Each structure stands twice: as structure tokens, then as C-alpha cells.
Amino acid sequence: MIILLVNMSLDPVTGGGTAERILQVGLALADLGHDCTILTTDLGISLERRSQLTNLRLVVLPCLCKRYYLFRFSLFELRNLVIGADIIHLMGHWTFINALVYLLAKRYKKPYAVCPAGALPLFGRSKLIKKLYNVVVGRAIIRNAQFHVAVADNEVAHFAKYGVHPTRVSIIPNGVNPDDFAIDNKEIFRKHIGLDDNPYILFMGRLNLIKGPDLLIRAFYSIFDRFPDVNLVLAGPDGGLLQALKEQISTQELKKRIHFVGHLAGKTKAAAYSSALLLVVPSRQEAMSIVALESGVCGVPVLITDQCGFGILSEIGGGMVVPATEEALSEGLVSLLEHRDNLPRMGERFKMYILEHFTWQAVAIAYIDLFNEKEKFGV
Questions:
Q1: Residues 235, 236, 242, 247: what is their CA dihedral angle, to the nearest 10 degrees?
Q2: Mean pLDDT across the chain, nearest whole number?
Q3: Same domain, yes or no, for 198 and 153?
Q4: Which of 109, 186, 251, 355 is positioned for an S-S bond with 275, CB 3.0–4.6 A?
């Protein structure tokens, strides 16, 4: 099968979960013997990132405007990519690249899948522009797709608001590659940031409003004197909230115990997970947290909000799910930290569940099964 995978960025720093998903799905599909091309912009594509693209073709468009991901393109080249594909996969939603490829797919009657990965709700900045985008092309992209892919149950309702009946939505979750998180030395992260031997809670993600690091800091502030040995580590690039978060830390004691360490990758990232007490995902809105899967494959339990599409976490005993509020996060932290001897066992249960259900190979197989059901979806 010839598959064209489309996303605005492959940048692991600013691209977030959609960049990781499109890359890993492409690699897994290629390993299964399919001919895969990733179409993206040139933002943040490092030599390291390019080195990961074994068995994949990469078509990179020069980005002219980082804020809105506008790019220079050859209509002839894009037309040939679309015509040559058996199926097209659009990742995310609010992007010019998706709109352009959609119009070409419609023109040449090519089937395509959409996987917004939690992007459909109007949230964050540029709401007026997003409303206009939906009026002009966005709603049509979603409604007219042959395949609608949600990464978690909570995303089905997002599709419904765009006129897509729940029976048309297929749930294909995010995944993880266990080999990426195999490390020999957990202490390399502590050495990397100069952290002492005290235990720490970990946040991993962009520092912006939707990810909720402000909620976590306030929750930690309310309980930090009950657990005087516990630190809080926030790992991830600035998404516009870093300065406000630093101003939120009002006392010297808090400043000593809250650490901003920036974007982590590779073995350092794996070590950050592996040596943490637990991961906290305080998101206000998220389809399904990839960082929760990464933490799980490292054997570390997770405290996550009910806005992250991972309600089964509590059922399998791999962590705790709470409402996306400061108070609920505080209560969750207290509950887990007061019984911290149980955390390794919770992490091990979570790891076994992840290895059984959430590998990228399993995700790729689910995609192929879906694409082969063409008659069911009227393709």
C-alpha cells in the first residue's frame, strides 16, 4: 500500500504528540512492508531526526511563517504525491498543509483519513482564525474523510460536533517503542541537571496553558511542606508560559525544589522517567497522552487528569485519574505520596499493560486493518 502521511512538523520540541505519532506510525508501517512518504515542513528537522527515517521517504516544504506554518510549495509536486498515494493520512487539524492536501485529495478522488489527536475543540489562542478556518475548509476536511481516527474514547464527542456519527469513528491509540527507553544508567538525568538524591515528581510536556503545568505547580505548593524531601521537575520546551510559571514560584524554598530543565530527548529523557517517583499529566485538554505511555513503559506510575483520554489507568492499577483542577491534583499527589512504597508495584502493572496493548507496531496493524475495510466506509 502506498501511504502519504501529512503533518505540519516533525519537530520533537514544538511538534509535540502529533510529530511523534506521525513519525512512529510511518516507521511501523514501513516495517510492515508499506511504501510510506511523510509530507511536512522543515521546522526543527535535525540531522538526528532525519537519521530516524529509515525506510521512509521525506518531502520537506520550506516554512515561511513559523507562527501559522505557512510554506512554499510546488503544486505540481504535491499533486503527484496525492495522485500516487493509495491512501492519505492527515494529522492534526488547524494547518494550511492539511487544507491544501485535502483539496487535492478531493480533486483527484483519493481516500484519506483524519486523525486530529485532540485538536478539534476551539482551545487556546487564535480562536477567531480557527473559526474562520473551520468555516472555509476545516469542517469539510473532517466531514468528508473516509476514515476518522480518534486516539482515545473522549475524542469521539469532538468528531460528533463536526457532524461525524460515532459509528464512523475508529479508535487507534498512541503507542510507544520500548527499545527507545532502555537505559543502563538511571542517574544520567540527575547528573544532567545537577539534582541531588531526593525523590522527584515529573512533568513532561510543553509549558503552555493546555498542558496544565500551572495547575501542577499550585497543587505542589499546597502539599510541598507535607513531603519535605520531594522535588518537582518540569521538563519540556517553553510554550509561552515559562515566565509566568517562574513568577508563580514565590518562596525560596519552592525555588529550591521546583526545577525547569527544558526539552529532554534520548537517553536523558528515558532516565528522567525511570528515576522519577511518578509522572503527573495535569492537562486541561488532551486526546491521549504519549508521555503517559512513555512513563508506563519505564515502569513509572502516572497521576493524570480525566481530560486525557486514559480512564483505564485506575482500573489497571497503574496510577490515578483525577479532575483537571488544582484541588484534585493536590489530593491525588497526597494519596500517592503517602503510600509511595506502592508506586513501584503500580509502575510494574502499568508497564505490563503498555507492552501488551500500546506498541507502535500494534498501532500500524490497526491502521492497515482499517484501510482494508474500504467497502465498509464507502471508499
A1: -10
A2: 91
A3: no
A4: 186
Identify whether residues 99 and 227 lie together within a single domain: no
Indicate whether 296 belongs to any domain.
yes
Query: Is 255 buried (19+), middle (13-18) or exposed (0-12) by CB count in 10 A?
Result: exposed
Contacts of 155 (CB under 8 A, 6+ apart): 116, 117, 118, 120, 169, 171, 287, 288, 309
* Number of domain units in the chain: 2
Contacts of 210 (CB under 8 A, 6+ apart): 123, 124, 283, 284, 285, 286
102-160 pLDDT, tens digit per residue, is: 999 999 999 999 999 989 998 767 789 999 999 999 999 999 999 999 998 889 999 99
Q: Which domain holds residue 142?
A: 2-175+359-371
- CATH number for the domain that contains residue 363: 3.40.50.2000
Angle between helices 266-274 and 290-297 (to 10 degrees): 70
Which residues have C-beta within 8 Å of that of residue 373, sequence separation ≥ 6?
A: none
8 A C-beta contact, residue 132 and residue 94: no
Whether 248 and 348 map to the same domain: the answer is: yes
More confident residue, 195 or 207: 207
Over residues 317-371, the pLDDT tens digits come to: 999 999 999 999 999 999 999 999 999 999 999 999 999 999 999 999 999 999 9
Residue 376 lies in a domain: no
Is residue 377 in a domain?
A: no
Q: Could you tell me if 264 and 350 lie in one domain?
A: yes
Q: What is the pLDDT of residue 176?
A: 93
Asked, for residue 41, whether it belongs to a domain, the answer is: yes
How large a percentage of the chain has pLDDT more than 70?
A: 98
Helix (H, G, I), strand (E, B) or coil at 154: helix
Q: From CA 349, how far away is CA 255, in angstroms rounded?
A: 34
